[in-house]
Amino acid sequence: MTKRVLIPYRRADKMRPYEGAVRAAGLDPFSVLASGAVSLSGASGLLLAGGSDVNPVRYGEQAHPETDPPDDERDEVELELIEEAIKDDVPILAICRGLQILNVYHGGTLIQHLASTRHDAEMEKKATPAHEVAIDPQSLLGKIAGAERWRVNSRHHQAVDRLGAGLRISAVDAEDQTIEGVERPDRTFVVAVQWHPEDQVTEYTEQLKLFRGFADACR
């Protein structure tokens, strides 16, 4: 039986790459608008996608001039889903904003605006690598990757500042040490990356390992 993965979203037009990557790993994507009551009932896993910035009020800060207008409804839906997934040990794969809200859920904070364009590169093709990440070989991400370096794409102007309680760093930018991966080792699978592997799986097939690792963990 195909394993169903819940993907909360705000913009349906952004879902195709996520759904395609999930299907390529043998999973069934179930994309649901992040509004109202959303539950993990019947889902084998939770994928948290990219999107607008988390409201900085949620980590005790005022908004930076470059921070997106808040989307409190999406924040609330995703935080409740993380709570449900952590409690029931439902696997989580978190991407870009997903990593950021996962960190905020655990009491961490965010750098609201990175001064460098290194991480928010303007690329004609979304799959094009922007920089290297150094991966901790002892982390779950490292075991999935089977490598200590990956060249990744990059479309984010925020990043982890203070790491949330219970999380560990699994990857950093090889040059400037920006946190690029975090995970929670006391759960079966809680893996978060700051880049967009869903855009790379067809051209840079090593990125499909993330989704296959997620699929293996899903009940």
Helix content: 10-25%
Q: β content, as a range?
A: 15-25%
- Return the string of H and E elements: EHEEHEHEEHEEEEEH
Number of contiguous helices:
5
The helix/strand class is: alpha/beta
Average pLDDT value?
Answer: 96
DSSP E strands, number: 11
| Shape, principal axes of CA atoms | globular
Which runs of at least 5 residues are low in confidence (pLDDT < 50)? none
Taking Cα atoms only, what radius of gyration do you get, to the nearest Å?
16 Å
Distance between the termini: 11 Å
Keywords:
alpha/beta; nine-stranded mixed beta sheet; two-stranded antiparallel sheet; 23% helix; 23% strand
Question: Can you give a write-up of this model?
Answer:
- The protein is α/β, with parallel strands linked by helices and 219 residues long.
- The chain has five helices and eleven strands, in the order E-H-E-E-H-E-H-E-E-H-E-E-E-E-E-H.
- The strands form two sheets. The protein has a nine-stranded mixed beta sheet with strand order 2-1-3-4-11-10-9-6-7, sandwiched between helices.
- A hairpin with a 6-residue loop joins strand 10 and strand 11.
- The longest helix has 17 residues, at 72-88.
